[in-house]
Write a structure and sequence with these properties.
Mean pLDDT: 93
Shape: globular
CATH superfamily: Cytochrome-c3 Hydrogenase, chain B
Number of strands: 8
Largest sheet: 3 strands, antiparallel
Structural class: alpha+beta
Number of helices: 15
Helix content: 40-55%
CATH class: Mainly Alpha
Order of helices and strands: EEEHHHHHEEHHHHHHEEEHHHH
Oligomer: single chain
CATH topology: Cytochrome-c3 Hydrogenase, chain B
Strand order of the largest sheet: 1-2-3
């Protein structure tokens, strides 16, 4: 007797979801034949909130878009304001921003690695990743005094210069971390269970990734070489020499390798920035009165392309703010990535996308 197809709800409180959302999967036996991601449990009306606050007051709200990549969202917002009103950032301010962004990228990838390893049963790797993440959170705390919602970037630069001891502390941390990354390779990739659950699973063709609008590590894991730090450089990134992390296998393992390689490259960028950082002020002059205009900024968030569009009406607050979340687009591609695989593959496949619902339910 043939088994009828049926829908299964995974969420909104399933351990693999890493946030409040539901994934409905349609199964034929154990095989997934369709899927439907559903968000809306965490909606906070962020874009509307921005219309009721002046430009500097919006920065702390950006921290809450994705609290494991707060610095990235602060940066893309202030960059959009600077582009809208043609505000210049001092070179030292740009370098400090890049250092903070790459520290944040590593911290974000580490919390992804910790949660992803938990999804597939490697609790030791969870402990390792969270242990190392604390060192980078310490660095961000040294810059701004906070460990999660930083409120560090400002329109025109950053709120304060780095402490005198920061470069030495940062270099020490980066050197130590790269040694630990070698341990990760042994701990994770020598596991036959990990290879079975990642290699050849969650195949995402390059053409599908492009057509679905996927960006970031998920796109580069499908062999598409797009990284805005390289392809549309911003801030001080044109001053640094680093490799774009791209893998061609298009599966869960490829997306894992992209993020691991990116952490190596982030260490490389941080070293270069600390070595080449120019002297001078860290905060430029922002206008007291903002004219009419419109502008945008897009940056390479740890999860993909983050985008802010601002429409100004001549008052001290924006008339309209529009946000493009990379994960909102990526989670929409769940049906294309999941079809044909087993229910047991769902945590591995969706975990490789690095979900963040705060920025999706904006």
């Amino acid at each position: 007797m043939a088994m009828a197809e049926m829908w299964i709800n995974m969420g909104p409180q399933h351990p693999f979801t890493h946030g409040l959302w539901t994934l409905k999967v349609k199964v034929d036996g154990e095989t997934i034949v369709d899927a439907e991601p559903i968000i809306g449990y965490l909606h906070r009306g962020f874009e509307k909130l921005c219309e009721n606050r002046n430009y500097p007051q919006i920065i702390p709200i950006c921290d809450r878009l994705c609290y494991v990549a707060s610095m990235s969202w602060d940066h893309v917002y202030v960059s959009a304001v600077e582009n809208t009103f043609d505000i210049k950032v001092p070179p030292r301010g740009e370098y400090i921003r890049v250092i903070a962004l790459e520290i944040q990228r590593i911290a974000s990838h580490l919390i992804w690695l910790a949660s992803f390893m938990t999804d597939i049963g490697n609790l030791t790797a969870f402990l390792y990743a969270m242990r190392e993440r604390e060192m980078f959170i310490d660095l961000l705390q040294a810059l701004c005094g906070a460990r999660m919602t930083y409120n560090y970037p400002r329109i025109g630069g950053v709120s304060q210069d780095m402490p005198k001891s920061f470069p030495q502390q940062c270099l020490k941390t980066v050197d130590f971390f790269e040694k630990r990354l070698k341990e990760y390779d042994y701990l994770i990739e020598e596991s036959e269970v990990f290879r079975i659950r990642s290699q050849g699973v969650g195949y995402l063709r390059p053409s599908d990734a492009i057509n679905l609008g996927i960006t970031g590590p998920a796109l580069r894991g499908s062999g598409v070489p797009v990284d805005l730090r390289k392809t549309d450089p911003y801030s001080a990134y044109p001053d640094f020499d680093f490799e774009m992390a791209v893998e061609k296998d298009c599966d869960v393992y490829a997306r894992y390798r992209v993020r691991m390689n990116e952490m190596h490259e982030s260490c490389n960028i941080i070293r270069q920035a600390l070595k080449k950082i120019p002297p001078g002020p860290v905060l430029g002059k922002a206008p007291r009165h903002f004219p009419r205009g419109e502008g945008y900024a897009r940056t390479e968030d740890p999860r993909g392309e983050a985008f802010f569009y601002i429409q100004a009406d001549g008052t001290d607050r924006p008339y309209r703010v529009k946000i493009r979340s990379p994960i909102f687009v990526t989670v929409s591609a769940a049906p294309a990535i999941l079809r044909g695989y087993k229910v047991a593959d769902v945590p591995s496949i969706m975990g490789s996308l690095d979900m963040c619902l705060g920025e999706s339910d904006r």
